[in-house]
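Data card: per-record layout.
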Amino acid sequence: VEFALILPVMMMLYAGSVEFSEALVVDRKVNQLGGTIGDLVAQSASMNATEMNNILAAGTAIMLPYDSTTVRVQVMAVDIVSTSKQTIAWAEAKNDIDPPDGSDTPIIVPSSIATVGGQMIVTNRVFPTPAVNVTHRAFFRHQHQGGAPPFFPEVLTSREKPAELLKANEKSKT
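The structure for this 174-residue chain is written out next.
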C-alpha cells in the first residue's frame, strides 16, 4: 500500500529532475554559443561577410545535439557615442532580424563597462522553448579598443520572455 502511494510521487520527482537537468544543459549551451561567437568577433580588427557567416555557422556545432535552427543570434558592434547615446556600427544575425546600421541599439551596454568613444561587441541569443525563451546577452570590448577585461558575461543574463526584455530596454533608455 505504501509503495502504491509513493510510486507516483517518486516518478514525478524523477521526471522533473530529468527535465530540469536538460534545461540546464540547454541554458549552458546557449550561453556558450554567445560567448564563443562574441569572443571570435571581438578578437578581429576587421571581418568580411564570409568570416562572419562561418562564425555564425559554428554555432550549429556548439548547440549539438539540440536543434540549432530555432536559435536566434544577433551580433552587433555598438559605438559608444556618449553616456546617453549608443548606436549600431554594424550588425549580423542568424534566424533573426539585423538592426539597421547607425540606429540606436536595442540592447543598452551598461555604463559600468561602456567607454565613450569605444566600441563593444554585443551578442544576443534566444533559444525558444514551449515554456520560456532562454535568452542570454554578453558584452565584449572590441580588440582594437584595448583595455581589460575584454569579456563581461556577468553583466546581463536573462531568462525572461522577450516582451519583458523589450520593456526593460525601453525603461533603461529613458
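Known properties of this structure: Residues 144-169 have pLDDT under 50 and may be disordered. The CA atoms of residues 60 and 67 lie 8 Å apart.

See the next section for split statistics.
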